[in-house]
Amino acid sequence: MFKIASIVGARPNFMKVAPIHRLFKQTDAFEPFLIHTGQHYDEKMSKIFFHELKMPEPDLYLGVGSGTHAKQTAAVMIELEKVFLQETPDWIVVVGDVNSTLAASLVASKLHIPVAHVEAGLRSFDRSMPEEINRIMTDAISDLLFVTEHSGMENLKKEGISDEKIHFVGNVMIDSLVEHLEKAKASNILQELNAQPGEYALMTLHRPSNVDNRTVLRGIFDAIDQIQKKCPVYFPIHPRTKKMLIQFGLEPRIREMNNLHIIDPLGYLSFMRMMSQARLLLTDSGGIQEESTFLGIPCITLRENTERPITVDMGTNQLVGSDPTAILDAFARVWSDKTDEHQVPPLWDGHAAKRIVDVFKAISQGKRTI
Ligand code: UD1
Questions:
Q1: Alpha helices, DSSP H, located in the chain
Q2: Per-residue pLDDT at 337
Q3: Rounded to an integer, what distance in angstroms lies between the CA atom of residue 275 and that of residue 234?
Q4: How many beta carbons lie within 10 A of that of residue 111, not counting itself?
Q5: Which of 52, 73, 176 is nearest to 134 (CA)?
Q6: Which pLDDT tens digit goes with each residue over 85-98?
Q7: Could you give the CA distance from residue 18 to residue 253 in angstroms, rounded to a whole number?
Q8: Do 104 and 138 touch, CB atoms closer than 8 A?
Q9: Which of 34, 58, 77, 293 has the most CB within a 10 Å radius?
Q10: Could you tell me the strand order of the sheet in which 2-8 lies?
């Protein structure tokens, strides 16, 4: 039996691990177990996703919580080292680019436990982003690298990663989207919020570069003020952003924007429903750039760069940064353009997890070595 530990920590991990962990469970050759580091711990940032994605309760919950990068990463490492020594997994699987991803990879590789990184090779080439550091470091010490888009293959090859470790499998986040889109139709979130299909903008914002600086955050909301005069904006707010709006004294100004609806973070199904029916998206998230590309919903990304260039090349994404004029120009373009042309990137077809598990099957049967 092959013991495989999958690690989740933060919100964007859950929908990536869910389809892989389920397929592992369905295969006799594997003994999968699920570890939640507790990087995200609020009911609405974590638990609801397990429930809606029908994920089993984690086998282990480490409860590390928030902290500086060093404290959070170190706390995950200290706890995981104990777990790995006790459980002795044959492999670990990590996804994405959050601090828990890097922490788990570091601990495993030093214990000589092979690491599989799902969503490998993405590069923004912006090392001021903590996620870019997490991506580069994790890839450098991974033994199997599962890639979502062509740029990922190129980046890994340029970094000297050998071909046999790299597998172009598609996008597990889209697996979850494909699986749950129909179920999401049963959500009555639109009625609850009185949102009209096709007539509202949906916004998310949480990157430190956007929300930890008062001038930048104020500038973004200057643009949002103009946008909400033309179309309702729904904004499920991330805890970090909520904290910073209060800290910077920007709350009173925002409360005056009658058509900006700030709501609690949404669960997976409600968010998918809101996204699929939106006129446009405003975001600084990584995953939403991909989900909007798959759905064909215009996406205005409040970042200067993206580690997911295929969403710009083939999809609906445009990068505008945080300058209010650039945001408003992009909004005007999207608002006046009603064409619905978009392409879905190769292998974003709902079967990425199967491709990943097939690679593990081949390894467990000795048909592949790494
Ligand atoms: C993390 C990831 C980011 C990902 C994002 C998705 C890193 C470096 N960043 O950023 O890549 O896009 O998750 O949400 O791993 N907080 C709560 N409740 C929670 C979680 C966080 O209140 O359940 C607050 C705390 O004040 C915390 C802050 O949010 O200090 C930031 O949380 P943290 O996990 O450090 O990073 P995120 O900004 O969520």
A1: 11-25, 48-52, 69-87, 99-110, 130-140, 150-158, 172-184, 189-193, 208-211, 214-230, 239-247, 251-255, 268-276, 287-295, 310-313, 324-336, 352-364
A2: 85
A3: 10
A4: 14
A5: 73
A6: 999 999 999 999 99
A7: 40
A8: no
A9: 293
A10: 60-61, 30-36, 2-8, 91-95, 115-120, 144-147, 166-168
Q: State residue 341's pLDDT score.
A: 76
Q: Please give the radius of gyration of the chain, using alpha carbons only, rounded to the nearest integer.
A: 20
- 8 Å CB contact between 331 and 222: no
Burial tier of 70 (Cβ tally within 10 Å: 0-12, 13-18, 19+): exposed
Give the domains, in start order, of the chain with CATH numbers: 2-170+348-364 (3.40.50.2000), 181-335 (3.40.50.2000)
pLDDT one-digit tens code per residue, 12-57 = 999 999 999 999 999 999 999 999 999 999 999 999 999 999 999 9
Specify the residue for token string 């916004």: 203
Instruction: Locate 330 and state its tokens.
Output: 């992009």
- The residue ranges of the chain whose pLDDT is under 50 are none
The first and second tokens of residue 106, run together, are 């570091």
Cα(142) to centroid(ligand 1), Å:
24
**Sequence letter at residue 253:** R
Q: What is the pLDDT of residue 367?
A: 72
Q: Count H helices, E strands: the chain?
A: 17, 13
Tokens of 251: 């709350």
Distances (CA, A) of 141 to 2, 64, 109, 115: 21, 23, 7, 8
Q: Whose CA is nearest to atom 29 of ligand 1?
A: 240
Mutating to test ligand 1, I would choose from 39, 48, 77 the residue with most ligand atoms within 8 A of its C-beta, which is: 39
Q: If you measure from the C-alpha of residue 10 to the centroid of ligand 1, how many angstroms do you get, rounded to a whole number? A: 7
